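pinging the channel bc i need a second pair of eyes. not urgent but kinda urgent?? the chain im working w is below, pasted from the shared doc
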Amino acid sequence: MKRNGIYAAVLVLSTLSAAAYAQAPGAATGPTGGAPTQSTSPASAGGPSTPPASAATLGSSDKKFFVKAGGGGWAEVAAGQLASQTSANPDVKSFADQMVKDHTKANDELTQLAQTKGVTLPQAPDASHQKDLDKLKQKQGAAFDKAYVKSQIADHKSTISLFEQASKSKDPDIAAFAQKTLPTLKMHLVMVKGLQKKLPG
């Protein structure tokens, strides 16, 4: 009887010890209150992920890309709006409207990308493009159409070169944006070269 009583006492103490451990503040239990589970790291528990790249971490070529692409994009929109209002040629007006639509969309996407990188984009054409726009405003009729189309060919060639360089960026987001936009830019160049052949004289 004494031996059985000792066994019973040991069993009760073991049960109480297990219960106390399970209720201890530092005790980690599984989903069903079973065996302790491994603690999770902040990342796996929904903690902050790796912060986005900032302007300070971008390479010089990436920073130049944002500045040139931003200024050039606004110039395309401004030139397209001017051509749509000034030209009397329906083909020129149609092309200009397409430039406004496509480059406004690209500008919006570039702005969003720049924000994630901590970069502030230009909100107007750069000085060189603005000078060309001022000259374009002084022309009318066929002279305007020829000058606008000629400038569009030159601009799209340089823009395609800029985006081809950016498509090789070490920053995957910049490279992806450039690769996504390049086909549209190349299509614009084909369109404007075809338009040039249609212009009289």
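so Confidence is low (pLDDT under 50) at residues 1-51. and The domain at 58-198 is CATH 1.20.1260.10 (Ferritin). — does that match what u expected or am i reading it wrong
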